[in-house]
Amino acid sequence: MQTHGILLCLWGLCIISSVVVSLAASFQPSLRPSRTKSQSRHIIGLSTNDDTIRLSVQDFEFRLRDAQYNELGQVADVIMSSFYSNSTTPWRQMFRLAELNRIQQNFPHEDKEVHRHIVAVTVVKGEEQVIGFCDLDDRLPNLNTGYSCNPRPYVSDLCISPQWRRRGVAKAIIQESETYSREKLKKEDIYIRVESHNEQALTLYESLGYCKIYNPDSPKKQIFLLRKELRVVGEAIIEESLQQQQQQQQQQQQQQQQQQQQ
Questions:
Q1: What is the dihedral of CA 219, 85, 63, 33, to 10 degrees?
Q2: Which phi and psi angles does 214 have, rounded to 5°?
Q3: What is the DSSP string of 44-63?
Q4: Mean pLDDT across the chain, nearest whole number?
């Protein structure tokens, strides 16, 4: 009987823990990132080697690469320091569990070509430490995103550890997302959402060429939807010129065929 009672107590604690984590995931919805409607946070020297970008900015080096699954605990810590800085115990631990579960469930195991968890890492005391993160997603949106507008590719969860901010890390992550979207995904635009009160993020995005567009999911403009055209102006002009030349050639061929038929 005593053993049976202990097992029942443990079973009850498991149920309570799962309920609390679920509540934490739905609590403070504006703080949760990007794949559902409440996930709206959104808001040198360079060399490449084996899908790794190494940078040197303001007397410290960091590199950008895809996250490893065993680093997601560090990623969750960066998310907490960026989006849950005002939370207190015991809720803080519940929020962290919810975030860790979310990014684990969303980890790109099989669709790495169209979905990336990009991390910035630097060496601290001889070991690599995650200091920045973002989610770059070009997958078809799920039916339960909660958004009526789901543009792709889409950047979300951009966050930097407080002690590493204002050192070019966020800018480098955004530019890597843009480069990958343009060169690998062959996309002409990239999108990001940001809360209207996040003036620091808005200033950064606008300085990088992002423009506000109509967001049907936020008619009161509490959340801005931003877009950036990824094509270089010169490339766009050349492409338009080639298209015009092709159209002219097609018209000339059609005229010649008509003349021959006559």
A1: -30
A2: -65, 130
A3: -EEEEETTEEEEEETTEEEE
A4: 81
Q: What is the arithmetic mean of pLDDT over 12-30? A: 44
Alpha-carbon 231 to chain mean position: 20
Q: Give Cα 228 distance to the centre of its chain.
A: 14
Cα angle at 106 between 81 and 138, to 5 degrees? 105
Rounded CA-CA distance 33/137 in Å is: 13
- Neighbouring CB atoms inside 10 A of 110's CB total 7
- Judged by average pLDDT, the poorest of 170-179, 182-191, 219-228, 253-262 is 253-262
Q: Reduce the DSSP state of residue 200 to 3 states and report it.
A: helix
Q: Which of 90, 7, 83 is nearest to 41 (CA)?
A: 83
Closest to 153 (Cα-Cα) out of 138, 169, 143: 138
Amino acid present at 258: Q
The whole-angstrom separation of Cα 194 and Cα 111 is 26
User: Which stretch of DSSP H or E encloses residue 144?
Assistant: none
Contacts of 44 (CB under 8 A, 6+ apart): 55, 56, 57, 168, 172
Distances (CA, A) of 243 to 51, 110, 239: 33, 37, 6
Bridge-based pairing of strands 127-137 and 189-195 is unpaired
User: Which token pair is 134?
Assistant: 């973002």
Looking at the chain, the whole-number percentage of residues with pLDDT higher than 70 is 73
Band of pLDDT at residue 249, cut at 50, 70 and 90: confident
Phi-psi region of 231 (alpha: psi -120 to 50; beta: other; left: phi over 0): beta
Is there a contact between 169 and 132 (Cβ–Cβ < 8 Å)? yes
